[in-house]
Description:
The complex is a heterodimer of chains A (162) and B (101).
Chain A: H1 2-22, H2 26-46, H3 50-74, H4 90-110, H5 125-133, H6 137-157
Helix pairs in contact in A: 1-2, 2-3
Chain B: H1 4-24, H2 28-52, H3 58-88
Helix pairs in contact in B: 1-2, 2-3
Amino acid sequence: MAEFSFWFVISLTVLSAVVVVxxxxxxxxxMALLFTLFGVAGIYVFLWADFxxxxxxxxxxxxxxxxxxxxxxxxxxxxxxxLSQTNVQQGVGGAIAIWLxxxxxxxxxxxxxxxxxxIEPAETVAQVGTLLLTKYLLPFEAISLLLLGALIGAAxxxxxxx
Amino acid sequence: MQELNTYLFVAAILFSLGVFGVMTRxxxxxxxxxxxxxxxxxxxxxxxxxxxxxxxxxxHIFALFVIVLAAAEAAVALAIIINIYNNMNTINVDEASALxx
Lengths: 162, 101
């Protein structure tokens, strides 16, 4: 059962990612991105990263995806056909993408990866919280400042000048 | 399911699809979606190496930082895209190529 759901999540992720980059309708791309992000959250669950999976659902699906859909709605006249868009130079792009994926796969299968055994933790939230407030306190504070600055900048940029 | 390589292959496929999207899409928002795919592929790698390197939580912290950076990037990018649309009436990056009207 676990095996089946694992391969289901993997195929859901990859297939909807294909739709994201190939669909002619922007809104279909955004909907496919929803399933891709959901599948990636599922992959995190299989990797025992429960907190990251939750954050992925909250921030990516609840935040970034909504922003993207708002962006699509605000930059297109919904009733017009401008919502569709075609890809350009698919041949060259596809060739480069296939070359990339074969190159990376070759490197992955040839490298003797370091592998350490581990037992499944009950939850990772406590460890993540401890690390964030001890070893990674400075990056944590820096990134909160960066987020604040980026959000203020975004609000300032999108305001109408008067 | 208990193989590191499976996750790395999935991440490689997602990364290549993201690169393909960034290269071939004309719409600015669709390009942004390609960037999100690339970031997700990197995140899968971080968490997978963390899991198979003896459940080292440091990888989770990096994934968390990447998610925060993606949120900041999406907010700023969409603000810029909406401004471009207001000024040039298009967000196809090959048409909106002038720095100044």
